[in-house]
Amino acid sequence: MTEHAKYLIPVIYIEEKEIIAKIHAMTKTLVASILENEKPVYVDFETQERIPKDSALWYKEVIKTNGECLSINDDRRV
User: What is its EC number (predicted)?
Assistant: First the structure.
C-alpha cells in the first residue's frame, strides 16, 4: 500500500491483490475529492494572488512529518 493509504485505512491484512487494488483506488479517489472540493487556497481574483487556507497549512505539516502529526498521541497535531 502507498504511504497515503496507511493513514486512511484501518490496519487489516488482505492477501487478495484485486481487493487491495480496489481499496487503493477508492483511497486515491477520496483524497482527490477532498482536495478538489475543499480547495486549499483562496484566489483573490483581482490580484490573482493565491492565499493558502488553514487546510493547506495543515496538509503542509502532514507532508513535512510524513503523516506523523496524524497520530492521536502526537503533541504536534495541528
Answer: 3.2.1.21
